[in-house]
Every structure is written in structure tokens, then in C-alpha cells.
Amino acid sequence: LQDELSDVIDVKDPDQTPVDERRRKRLAAEAAKFEPDHYLADFFEDEAIQHVLKYKPWWVDAHKKMIALQGESRQEHDTRTFVVFSEEEKEQLRKFTNKSYLLDKRSRHHVYLGLIDILLAYCYEVCVNEGDKNVESSWNVRKLSATLCWLESFTSIHDVLVSFGRRVLCYPLHRHFGLVTRAFNDTVMILQLGKAAVLKCLLDIHKIFMENDPAYILNDLFITDYCIWIQKTKSKKLAALCESLQKTTLAKSHMGFELEELEAAAVLVQEEESMLKAAGTVSKQQLLSSELETSDSEESSSTSSSETEGSDSDERESSTSEDGKINSLQGRLQEERTAPLIDCNGLRQGTNTSTFDISDEKSKVSLQSTSAPGKLIEELEKQMHTAIRLSEQPEGLATTSCILQEQEE
């Protein structure tokens, strides 16, 4: 039994360890287990936690009905009417033996505070798993309750709340202060619903521990006795306990982990990172814009140089073409100047005509002086005179006269 108990509770030798030493060891173990990174991760990335906080267990609706009826009639109603036990729960109650507990005032005070501690752990378990049970359910309840895990004996409600808050921030998967506040509010509602609601929760805890091999020992040590004892408790005692719990305040500064300082430092780091990211984005944009401007200037310079080269080549081509045109025109003029002008009689026209005329006159004189008179000489003289007249006329008239002469012949 001692070996099985060591698997369930954290205190090694409870019989030989005084209460003060157990508390000191518990606080040291919690301080060593606290991880700021895990807490900050759940603090900033709390989507899953916000989702489970929206879950409403059965006591939320029962509490609303009770408040509504009390507001209408302004009288207190029997809270047992708002709590319904299932057949399985009734069967659990039948298996319990009838016992009487003789407790002095101090022991009774410890029992009430232990009840609050156990209910807080149970409310956390129901909230994070949204009413479903899993293999971690028994671990969550016993690990978050210092009464079950360290056999702690509290002296004040504030100590109970601080212990529960510290253990929520150290051990389970979801370590968020909002879950501590939610469990606190749920425990208040359960106590306001009366001992029937408290008994229903204790029966559920009893069932959770019964389904887990090492945790069933806690039923024998605590839960079974609580289920029997709560049925004989006076409702006024629970109401007074609930009022004392409501008046107790719990803040992050009470946890002893400097949560507010951690959050403030993390917020500053986030702001610095966001500023660095913004500065990096601006520098990247400036770098891109400068690169774009450089590329645009290079493109414009290359375009202007290509345009300049194109204009130079165009000018060279135009000058070359103009030179070619001028040369061709000069060639044409030269050809026109040098080309022989031939009349219809096969004689050249133009500038060489005078030379031809002179030669003709010389030939005429020589012919007149050397040739004998006759018809042949006369015909030659007529042809020579005709050629001289044609050479003195324009080209068109010469052509026309040639045509007329041919027609006459």
C-alpha cells in the first residue's frame, strides 16, 4: 500500500514529515516546476484556452434557474430541486456505509478548506476537457489539489486559492490564469447550489478515481468519507463557506512567480520585434525601390544611347543616300552633257555642231574648188545646206523636218 501511495502523492514519507515541512517542500517543488516559456506561450497563444472557457457545465444552468426563481419569489428555494442524480449515482450512494464523524472545530475547518481545494481541481478538469473523461482526468484532479497530492492542511481560504493557482500554472497542459479564475467562479456556484450539488461533484470524482488503478487509494483516504460527511453537513455552514470564498480575492501577484513582470517584459519584446520587422520591411521596400530606380535609369540611359546611335546611323544613312542621290544626279547630268545628240541624218547635235559646221564649210569649199560641176555636186550641196539648217534648229523641229523631208522623198 505504501508503494502504491507513493505513485499517487508527491510527499515521500507523509507519516514522518510534519505539516510545515510538507508545505515548504511543496512550494519548492512548484517553484522548480514553473516554466516561464510555457506560461507565456499559453498567455499569448490562448485560442484553445478561450475555446474551453466557453464550455458551460451542468451547474451553470442550474445556478441560473436558482437565481431566476429567487428573483421572482424573493425567497430561498430548496437547492435539491435544481440538482438531479442519475441512477448510477444513486447506486454509488447505496454502496456507502453510514458513518458518523466527530470533528473538533479545527479539524472541521481543515475539512472545509480541503473540500474547496478538491472542488477547484475538479472544476478545472471539467472545464479543460469540456465534461468528457480521459486518461488524464484522475491525474489532473489529484495533481492540482495539494490536499490530495501533498496531504496539505490549509489554514485559510486564501492559502487554498494560492496553492491551486500555483499548481495550475506549473503542472497541467493548459497553464493560464483565466482557468484559475474560471474554476474559482464554478466552485462558488456549486457551493451556492448546496450540498446536493457538492455531493454530485464528489460522486463524479469518486468514479474517476475508481477507473484509475493507483488513484483509487484516494477514494479510501478522502473521497468516500467526503461523500458520506457532506450529506450530514448543515446547509448554513456551506452558505457561510461560500460567502467567505466570494469575499476572498486572488491576483497574479499572489502566485509568487512574478507573472505581471514576465508579461510586461514579453510585451516589450513583442513590440521590439514588431518594430524591427516594420523597419526591415521599410528597408526592404527602400532597397527594392532603389534597385528599381537604378534599373530604370540604366534602361533610360541605354535607351537614349541606342536612340543616339540610331539617330547617328539614320543621319549617316540619310547623308549617304543624299550623297548617292547627288552623285546619281551628277552622273545623269554628266551623261546628259556627254551623251551625243544624233539627228535624223545621223549627225551629232549640241556643242559639237559648230565643229561639224566648220568642217562642213571646209568640205564645202574643198568640194567647190576641187569637184567638177555636175548634178552629183549639186545634190551634195543641197544635203549639206539641209544638214546645216537642221543643226541650227531645236531637236523637236529638226525631227519634224526630218519626217517631212522623208515624206517628200
From TrEMBL:
The lineage of its organism: Eukaryota, Metazoa, Chordata, Craniata, Vertebrata. This is Protein SHQ1 homolog. GO terms for biological process: box H/ACA snoRNP assembly. InterPro entries: Shq1, Shq1_C. Residues 76-259 form the Shq1 C-terminal domain. GO terms for cellular component: cytoplasm; nucleoplasm. Residues 9-22, 316-325 have a biased composition (Basic and acidic residues). Residues 1-22, 287-356 are annotated as: Disordered. Belongs to the SHQ1 family. GO terms for molecular function: unfolded protein binding.
